[in-house]
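Hi Prof. W.,

I finally got the Iron ABC transporter substrate-binding protein prediction working! I wasn't sure whether to trim anything, so I left the full sequence exactly as given:
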Amino acid sequence: MIRAAALGAFAALVTATPPAWAEEVTIPTATGPATLPAAPQTVVALDVAAIDTLEALGVPLAGIPAPHYLDYLDDVAAQAQTVGSLFEPDFEALAVMAPDLVIAGGRSSAQVDALSRIAPTIDMTVWGDDHLVQVSERITAYGTLFDREDAAEKLVGRLEAKVAQAAEAVRGQGDALILLSNGGKVSAYGAGSRFGWLHSALDLPEASPGLSTETHGEAVSFEFVAEVDPDWILVIDRGAAIGQSGEAAAATLDNPLVAGTTAAQAGQIVYLDSGPLYIAGGGVQSVMGTLDELIGAFAGAEG
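And this is what came out:
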């Protein structure tokens, strides 16, 4: 909980008007344009996707949540203070730190109003059919905010080239069904869902159009998977992503109904690296890593 005393003690720091000489920039966010002092120095990021992209741009962070789940962000964590979890920021620690900017998003987006009482806070959530468009927008926005325009431009160029390569790899290779495995159960995701960009950005046909776009997907049975009979199955293992013990996705899908699908018969069940995709979806490194996996899987298939 936010302690009133902690907030009051730092109210002057939070509400102080920036010096007249401070340069400001306006950047797009998930909730609309935001005008902020340029090149903030003490920055906290509470969204792993934001941490991912900021790390790729070389932006130092003073605070991040724990756990951060992803090994490739360990160096960031080693240099940053822990300021809560993905869902619950440590408001007292943040008040003491008095950051110039807090970047929220995804799981921490519900805390934006509360965080704004401590420091300027922006919501940089990436979500929706235009997922990769938003990823590029976030890269460009960070480049503008942190005076890294050249690095951001190059990073967007790399992302666009990777998307084009992945789209070419999947072209003409059939349809796909995205499944998330969680403790022995499976959910399916289609276009418009949190993982729907795998279809929309790459023109990868859906094996089962019309699936629910709910955050947690549409719960499905193995009979459903057999009936849909996808050419490809793309698997995300939630348990593995969050380090949870339990039945692994490969064991969950090891049954006669799945084994009889075209995907299984052709060796086209792809177990994606779930941590980056599930935890840091929207981070540029996460996205490019997933695209590399798809390029490798589809380019290696007989077409």
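The CA atoms of residues 27 and 141 lie 5 Å apart. Does that look reasonable to you?

Thanks,
D.
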